[in-house]
Design brief:
By secondary structure, the protein is α/β, with parallel strands linked by helices. It contains 16 helices and ten strands.
């Protein structure tokens, strides 16, 4: 009996030491640079995490670079090595795997895409569906961006060839709205807060609204996970504790979003990610809270939707034999939940 007690005590000490060792693990690198392509609401949890001090709580010094020219530019920065990670659209990881580049999402920010696609109000009588876009100019953020991919998919799904419409890079946010209003483009893919602003001004006729689960299913045939934190697999392998700390910080923020009032969230959001009108920002947040993931986890079924969308118009992706299990991982979000607790 004494022997069993000694063994139990020894096991308890060993378990405690192991736990202390795990808790004492230091991040491999504390200074991390993360890029975003624009100041859309989808990406807002990243700067909010910094504003709330959650990165600092995890012992990290995070610098955020906003390229303001679309997610493809942020992706290029990651590939080029000038940033460590990107908060951008999940579908970029699929594209990169088709090009034999190992990039993986480690934390999901958006359960639904949040994109709205519409035409100028003065064309409302002429355009009732995507098929009516023939001969028109479609505004995208930049070539290769997610708005580009989604616009091309939408055109193809409505029976249009790539020569039937013209895709024009107009930037994101306010520049895109300006391009639509001054008639430089006829149709546009856009996100909140611009989506709500254009709707309030009666400046657009919406063809599809991806800010809801039903809207996502209508536009893409399923739930379409979008913004996530993605990094080169080599960075993940070299810096597992740093990546875990990033996931821990983001989970703290996502939980805070869902536990806080729209007013509190709006007051905490950095200025670049909201409008000057506080009441309008609150209205947007009330309608958009469901956009944000509660746990950072990917649904293995949902990730099939972006693959189907990309494969439908890009033969190279369809023929690449994409292994979706290599485009994301849930291990960091799952461990974050255990480390933070309820």
């Amino acid at each position: 009996m004494k022997m069993l007690k000694h063994l139990a005590a020894a096991f308890g000490v060993a378990t405690l030491l192991a736990a202390q060792s795990a808790a004492a693990a230091e991040p491999e690198t504390k200074a991390v640079t993360i890029a975003v392509g624009s100041a859309i609401l989808n990406y807002m949890p990243l700067p909010l995490t910094k504003a709330l001090g959650n990165f600092e709580k995890e012992g990290l010094d995070v610098t955020i670079q906003n390229f303001q020219a679309g997610g493809s530019k942020a992706l290029q920065a990651l590939i080029g090595g000038s940033v460590d990670g990107v908060v951008g659209f999940y579908d970029h990881t699929i594209q990169m795997q088709a090009k034999r580049k190992d990039i993986s999402c480690v934390f999901l920010l958006n359960d639904v895409p949040g994109i709205v696609f519409g035409v100028r109000a003065d064309l409302a009588d002429k355009v009732n569906s995507g098929a009516d876009l023939k001969g028109l100019k479609i505004g995208i953020t930049t070539p290769g961006s997610s708005t580009d991919m989604i616009a091309r998919y939408y055109a193809k799904e409505n029976g249009l060839g790539l020569r039937d419409v013209e895709f024009i890079g107009v930037g994101s946010g306010a520049p895109g709205m300006t391009a639509l209003e001054n008639k430089s483009v006829d149709a546009l893919g856009f996100y909140d807060p611009i989506a709500t602003l254009l709707t309030r001004k009666n400046a657009v006729k919406i063809l599809f609204d991806g800010r809801t689960v039903d809207g996502s299913k209508k536009a893409f045939g399923g739930i379409y996970p979008t913004a996530c934190l993605y990094l080169n697999q080599s960075f993940i392998d070299r810096n597992p504790e740093t990546v875990q700390r990033l996931a821990d910080a983001l989970l703290r923020t996502m939980r805070w979003i869902h536990a806080s009032s729209p007013e509190a969230i709006v007051d905490a959001i950095p200025p670049a990610y909201k409008l000057d009108d506080r009441d309008l920002n609150i209205e947007i947040m009330k309608a958009s809270t469901s956009l944000f993931s509660k746990d950072g986890l990917f649904d293995p079924e949902a990730v099939k939707t972006p693959l189907a969308v990309l494969s439908s118009y890009d033969p190279a992706i369809g023929a690449a034999g994409i292994d979706l299990s290599k485009t994301y991982t849930n291990r960091f979000a799952e461990k974050a939940a255990k480390r933070i607790g309820d």
